[in-house]
Amino acid sequence: MSINLLPIYQYTNPISFVSSTAARGSLIEASPRFVKVRTNIRHSYPSARLRCVMNDTSLHEGSAGVAYKDGVVIVDHGSRRQESNLLLNDFVMMFKNKTGYPIVEPAHMELAEPSIKDAFGSCVQQGANRVIISPFFLFPGRHWHQDIPSLADAAASEYPGISYLVTAPLGLHELLVDVMKDRIDYCLSHAAGKVDECAVCAGTGRCKMKLQDSKS
């Protein structure tokens, strides 16, 4: 099973924080190297709900996957910190470029715009006759059980005849292990002075080793 590292410059929004540095004689992208994609993935989860199968046929009408007339809304919690909200735009661009899905919109559950209602409407305006709302959350808490479905219902009420679905959150997926490992490795490399801050930590100075003084 091979793991391919995506060159981040192909997918990031121009407004994102991107910097680079020479380390060990090679150019390292600081925004961030932890994005990975596996090829020829085989899942061994016992539950079909935990499987995610995606291939070139998923874009064709009649398949079980996303079709050309489908809109995808990727929704996160939302933040009062604008820099955090902009990272969702970067992820949506990365997702759209990688999947080839024609209609993909970002949304924030609260605290920022665009809202789920805004993103839903944008999908319909682009020709979507079905909207898939995918929570950018790890586990199924209250927001997934109550808040997002309620907001999706309200958004859909303005577009009779448009079907919609709120998918499961990310949950337990083997690829998240690789993402977590890469995040840890990159942050340790930054703490060791080998690479620049990644896009998430840029300008914060937070990714540093700390040591509390022992109590006397």
TrEMBL record:
Membrane-spanning parts: none
GO terms of molecular function: lyase activity; metal ion binding
Metal-binding among keywords: yes
The keyword Lyase is annotated on this UniProt entry: yes
Keyword annotations from UniProtKB, A to Z: Lyase, Metal-binding
Pfam families reported in the protein's UniProt record: CbiX
Entry-linked InterPro entries: CbiX-like, Sirohydro_Cobaltochel/CbiX
Origin superkingdom: Eukaryota
Name of the protein in its database record: Sirohydrochlorin ferrochelatase
Organism: Saponaria officinalis (Common soapwort)
